[in-house]
Write a structure and sequence with these properties.
heterodimer; A: mainly alpha; 5 helices; B: alpha+beta; Ribosomal Protein L22, Chain A; five-stranded antiparallel sheet; three-stranded antiparallel sheet; 35% strand
Chain lengths: 83, 187
């Protein structure tokens, strides 16, 4: 899967949890889930679980620990998909 | 260091589904999961542990200056219904929680006996919560003119662009917000 495709899928996943429309509209690889999209930390786990479901992968604790931005999420998804 | 976390229970009910597959397993230790599932009120127990973990995380990041999402590493133990402690690696934080029908609020700190200033806010629906919270902090702490978060998400007080060395923690969720400032740090 190409990166642009991953970003589109990820964007759809985070949509229900974002609290900052503007940052969401302009979402790039550099976008941070918490400081930019203002996703509530209690919803980070939902993002992780939704990513697992969507891509049929398992995100281990070490990977989850880093999943705070679009970039980190993409890296983790790519790595798990190629494993 | 001091940290605090507020959970608006009504909002938590709408925003999260703690019974969702994987929700507990990813964030709570096996022992915590047992406590939650054996509780008379599992929903409140989930958010009690969660607020303890968050409050402890806010203490931890002030010292270690890093951001991460690893709630399971913050291991909660209850001493009573509202007092507890949270350990991560070699650090231990003591916590005290207020549980009401509408919210759960936890304050955690490195020492058992700490003196702090704490203010609880109920938001008007129309206000920008962050601005309102920051103005409340500035009204309280007269020596500061700005509140700003650093790149780790840690809030600091400034006076004429100079950082004031006090431990501050802010929290807001839904209709509720609050802040704590560790006392006797600056005198």
């Amino acid at each position: 899967m190409i990166k642009e495709e991953l970003i589109i899928k990820l964007k759809a996943i985070v949509k229900p949890y974002i609290q900052e429309e503007e940052a969401f509209k302009n979402l790039t690889e550099e976008t941070d889930f918490i400081s930019d999209l203002k996703i509530n930390s209690a919803n980070l786990v939902d993002v992780v679980l939704d990513v697992e479901d969507e891509f049929n992968i398992e995100i281990d604790n070490d990977s989850m620990e880093k999943m705070l931005s679009v970039k980190a999420a993409i890296e983790i998804i790519e790595q798990k998909l190629s494993a | 260091m001091i940290g605090n976390d507020i959970v608006d229970l009504k909002l938590a009910k709408n925003q999260s589904n703690w019974q969702r597959k994987g929700f507990l397993e990813k964030q709570f230790t096996e022992e915590e999961q047992k406590t939650i599932l054996n509780s008379n009120d599992p929903f409140s127990q989930v958010w009690l542990f969660w607020s303890m973990k968050e409050a402890a995380y806010k203490c931890y990041t002030q010292r270690y200056k890093k951001r991460f999402f690893a709630p399971k590493k913050f291991i909660c133990k209850m001493i009573s219904k509202t007092l507890g402690y949270i350990s991560i690696d070699r650090e231990v934080y003591f916590s005290t929680t207020i549980i009401t029908e509408n919210y759960i609020h936890t304050i955690a700190s490195e020492r058992k006996e700490v003196s702090f200033d704490f203010s609880f806010i109920t938001f008007d629906h129309k206000t920008d919560q962050t601005t309102f919270l920051n103005n409340s902090i500035l009204a309280f702490f007269s020596g500061a003119d700005t509140v700003q978060k650093d790149k780790f998400g840690i809030p600091f007080l400034y006076n004429q662009q100079r950082k004031i060395p006090v431990s501050l923690s802010t929290s807001h969720h839904g209709n509720f917000g609050g802040f704590v400032i560790l006392k006797n740090q600056w005198t």
